Batch of 4 targets.
Target 1
Amino acid sequence: MHIFMPGKATGYLRASTQWLFVSLFLFPILPLAIANLLFIAFSFFVILSWIYIKPDRVWLSIKRNLVIALAFLPYLIDLAIHPHNSIVSFEAEKKLLFFVCPPVIGIYMAMYSLKPLKVYMYCFIAAVLALTLYTLALLVFRNILFSPQSFENGAYILRNSFEKISHLHPTYYSLFATVSILWLIYEYHKQTPLLKMLFVIIGLILFFQELFVAAKMPLAALVLSSLFLLYRITSNRKKLITIYLILIPCLVMLPILVPSLKNRIYEVKDSITLSSDQPNTVNDRQVIFDCSKTIFMNNIWFGLGSGNYQSALNVCYLCQGLNNIKNTQYNAHNQFLTMGINYGIIPLALFIIAMCIYIKRTIANPFATVLMISTIMVMLTESILERQWGVYFYVLFFMLIINISAKVQGKSIAS
């Protein structure tokens, strides 16, 4: 490595670049424009560093990251073929981070070392916690949180109010809260008694907010991942059994005690006992899944293209009697089916292979494993990469953990 800058200037450039990268993990609470500006600034500092610091083996560092981008190449190809199609352009713009982030972080890794994973995680958790406290305060102040009407019809009023206040869909918030809680569980045993108490308080705040917004799959992911994580990090099996015996009955009681969760779970029962023409989100989701699966299977090799994706779904929804689309556009609510409908089986396979590579490279670390498992579970019921926050979440955490794992060569990525 050849340095062409004075040592002090190089130090300032390194520190600025490193902390810009850390600040990107505040994205849950940032306006999208600010998050984009932070990423542009980070990219600028990385390129500036590259000009003055001539790092060796840059391509090897970039190549490791490109696996995440391969599945999304059809979006750029589609844009090149249909440059004036506004829908195709919009979908390609949302996926740009998949193409910019791998080389930028690859160059960054060739020059600088990443900070410990806990630095990024605590930054992320601070953002999620701040968002939680802000939305909770407004929900209480506006008399929404404790109003019986807020919990009717699958807690529609509560969930809709939460989204308007936070500017974040309940499923995305719940995924972010789930990952935050899993990290607190993972790191809990390493802390001092005072910090353990702080971890418990933060975890409970995030958990109860997640319960109130009642996004079912993130909650399921939290429960299953927590049980798995506790199994991996608790060497004393008697202690583990005791934890399970306390935890499982509490989890069983939650649907009875939390009105929004109770209403959401009872929708499953109502979907069986009520007629299909009565409003019910489970029935709606079944129609959405059936249409998405049918369209994917009918276009399995090359897909329809992102420009035709939503219109094809809308036609099927109307044929199946889902008249809600007159007011709301429903995507496939499944990231895997979304990719398959858009561009067929090959990009979908590449997407899954990238996930498998991630799991293989990080299998030694239980937190990295449960992060991906939770994300995959949520992707089964939500097309999280169709919104910018989902793209930021997936790309940043994928890049971060893959690169830390590569640097430590099998050691604990949290150390």
Note: The chain has a mean pLDDT of 88.
Target 2
Amino acid sequence: MLEVALQLHESNPHTEIRYGHQLIVKADIAAKRRWLSRGQWLQNEQRTPIANPVANHYSLEFDLKRLDNTGGFQIRFPIANTAGDLHLADGMHYSSDFSGLGVINGVHAAESPDRIEGDPFADGQVHRIGLKVTPESVLLSVDDAAYVDWKGDPSAITSYRMDKDVPAELHFTQSAKFFISNLEFTEE
């Protein structure tokens, strides 16, 4: 079984191979980005690595369409010596959908007065998502409109996710099926 899995990885280096909960072979992240540029379905709760390690200044753009009626999209991003989370249409454990920067000064986006109410994917259309990160700023745009524009001390940002010990990786997770394409990642 393991031999078949390793052969599959050779022909599809963008996939990671697991045996139970044990990671056997990591995905080739550069191959994964090339695959995402051409277009790929992202499954519910799938972790999709984009870059590791990441430079201090970087940007990411991609087209995104939600295929389910509800569900959110999260971007885990490194900033300075920490990591944060961006939420788009995250309403799984809350009374309404919201978007925003995960945790700032200990306040989760769901309780933040700066959160954006609503669901940008409710119209069923493809949206262009942009992310620019520097050591002191995070800019998230949806269809070229600023969605999150944060500036400040990066130590104020923390990740609520359980994998806090891996701050260097830029990755996606989602609570619905999405289609992603035209991914562009640049580092300065």
Note: The first strand starts at residue 17 and ends at 19.
Target 3
Amino acid sequence: MINVDGRPARSATIGFSNPVLVNSFLGILSSIEILAVFLFVLFLAWTYYARISNDFKKLMPIKSLNLDL
């Protein structure tokens, strides 16, 4: 596709593939990769929270504590 001024039109996905973070340890990361890692970590945190909260719901005390001092 060509714009009115004769230049080729840029795709909307081109912005996602441009490098966002350049680091010697991590390398070159695009916004899609950063978003994917963020969503993966969010999914792990949600899974952990769901399992722990479900375990706390099922937790029942065996007997009440009688602390005689």
Note: Helices lie at 14-17, 31-58.
Target 4
Amino acid sequence: MRRRNLIVAMAATIASGLSLAGPAQAFDSGDCNSTFGAANVIDVDQFSKDTGTSGRVDFGDHMHLGGAPQGTAVACWSSTGRVLLKGYLFSDPVDGDYADVKAVIDFRPNAGLGERREVSIPAPTVVGGMFHLPMDKIANFNIGRPGTTFNRVTIRLFADGELIDTIIRSRG
């Protein structure tokens, strides 16, 4: 009987911990509509990238559980040629060791020069004997130029300076 109570208590503890973690989140068409207005959104592209623990870097939205994003990032394309990219860059540990991770994001127009943005998370620092580690960082870019139509977003994910993966999203 005592063992059964212990098992029930452990199961209840695990279940309550999972319920506190909350549901996966996702950037979606609602983000696009609130930025551009629903009538101006012509394409919505939800996605995430899990490079596995060997890749050490992911892109998507919360929760980030088991080394994988549970929610999606979004690329939104407007009728005026603008593009919105919203997502989180995540750092994955390997045997408790974190890498310097970075996302290099190129926004390509139909003609002319593009735009480049970067988001990075440094490896943890030790201050006063304690680790200070940002586990995630938001990428939230609304890119546009009068008379220019942006039609492609390329996201390159790096860990310790090494290219791990490339994500490409295109208009329509």
Note: Helices lie at 2-21, 29-36, 52-55.
